[in-house]
Amino acid sequence: MKIILPKDITTELEAHLPDEVVVVRADSEGNLDGDTTDAEVYFSWFNLKPKTLHRVLEAAPQLRWHHAPNAGVNHIITPQYLERNLILTNGAGVHAIPIAEFAIAYMLSHAKQLPQLYKQQLEHNWQRGLAIEELLDKTLLIIGAGGIGQEIASRAKAFGMRILGSRRHPQPLPNFDKVVGADEWKELLGEADYVVIATPLTWDTKGMIDTEVLCLMRPSAYLINIARGAIVDEFALVEALQNGEIAGAALDTVFTEPLPPESLLWSLPNVVITPHCSGNSPRTKERSLALFIDNFTRYRHGQPLHNVVDQTAGY
């Protein structure tokens, strides 16, 4: 069997592959160091560019299975990709723990007024009396109660929060006080102190956090986006933040990345911007390789694969 692996991690993977497996390496531009006309499997790496993806697809007409390390695959499912009818698996779960920790950090930062306290330290200003709050008994709404959403919920529950969630197929979940369907979360916005966006980017979710949604949130509510920037209507968000329609936002992802220097989001005092780094961890690579090796073993033995993407739904 012949497989295509990312050049940067081939050495680490080869030690876990059977001797009969033939490996072709691909670099970040899609350059290949061997013949891939009979390759069956392609493991791409992070920051995969459409041009690179399409180049590999063209060079591997017999490809059957593609594994991507990302949880979000909106950048992969192009019309050209869909024509190939490949099995696509993703890295769902690989980033869940560090992202969940970041979500808690954003909430604590807001509740404890950490940005203002950091500012006071820089100014050598010993000022007391800030409106510092607890997370205890606050209501958290997680839009997208999948793997990441559930990791967030387990940590938030330890702080004594009331947790609401939404998912495509609602069902009772550990740590959630209530889970509703994908179209019902808007009815819960008026109850939420914190709203975390953890849903995949699809045609249905693109731009769904719009003026209507922001108006339904409490003026004291705090929005956190650790999913994809295009889920939020940025113009509507800036307006809501400027007008005090919501208390603030923490954005690990934005519509255009890197965030343009002229974006108003940089300078709004009630916004925290991080450079799409909430999933970063020394253990992310370790988990990514372990997931692929497990799935590759399953593939060779004809067993069901983990994390098969519904390409129609987009996740």
UniProtKB/TrEMBL annotation:
The keyword Acetylation does not apply. It comes from the Bacteria. Residues 104-278 form the D-isomer specific 2-hydroxyacid dehydrogenase NAD-binding domain. The keyword Cell cycle does not apply. Residues 20-309 form the D-isomer specific 2-hydroxyacid dehydrogenase catalytic domain. InterPro entries: D-isomer_2_OHA_DH_cat_dom, D-isomer_DH_CS, D-isomer_DH_NAD-bd, NAD(P)-bd_dom_sf. Keywords: NAD, Oxidoreductase. Belongs to the D-isomer specific 2-hydroxyacid dehydrogenase family. This is D-2-hydroxyacid dehydrogenase. The lineage of its organism: Bacteria, Bacillati, Cyanobacteriota, Cyanophyceae, Nostocales.
